[in-house]
Design a protein that fits this description.
Structural class: mainly alpha
Number of domains: 1
Number of strands: 0
Radius of gyration: 17 Å
Strand content: under 5%
CATH architecture: Orthogonal Bundle
Distance between the termini: 23 Å
Shape: globular
Largest sheet: none
């Protein structure tokens, strides 16, 4: 009985690992870091995790889970509810669509795919904030956060690939 319980618990954890890592990266993303002399801007780490899991384990990543994690992130950051889930769903839908083409490519192409998809997400975020503010939003914070996110992707991809190997092994 005890063995069956731990097997089910282990399977549940394996299935929820993408959502758990995205949530963990979301919590790390809201922690300000002192990069480039600005302690307010942090890389949007959870976007990297959404992209990674959309490519490597799309069947284990649920839309409902992304929405819930996005809402939690919105509450932590203090933005309008629904902002981050929309960005997550954009990244998830685009990367899921290109999954088969990207998986057979070398890492620099996968990273380039992330650069393009996250640029789209950051542009949409900037546009939405500009529209809701009824004025042109400063683009510098978005550009800095984008590049910080882009630069952090190889490290996060490496961490997530190790997590994936542990879960599948």
């Amino acid at each position: 009985m005890r063995v069956v319980f731990f097997q089910r618990l282990s399977e549940s954890f394996k299935n929820l690992a993408p959502e758990i890592t995205i949530l963990l990266f979301a919590i790390l993303s809201v922690q300000p870091h002192n990069f480039l002399g600005n302690s307010v801007i942090s890389p949007f780490l959870c976007l990297s995790a959404v992209y990674y899991w959309s490519l490597y384990r799309p069947g284990h990543l649920s839309v409902l889970g992304l929405i819930i994690i996005g809402i939690i992130t919105d509450l932590l950051v203090g933005v309008n509810i629904g902002f981050t889930p929309m960005l997550f769903l954009i990244v998830f839908s685009i990367s899921s669509r290109w999954q088969k083409e990207l998986l057979s490519k070398p890492f620099h192409i996968i990273w380039g795919g992330f650069a393009l998809i996250s640029a789209i997400a950051f542009f949409i975020a900037w546009a939405i904030i500009s529209i809701f503010a009824f004025q042109y939003a400063e683009h510098e914070p978005f550009v800095i956060q984008y590049f910080m996110t882009l630069i952090s992707f190889p490290i996060l991809g490496w961490v997530l690939s190790h997590i994936q190997r542990v879960l599948s092994g």
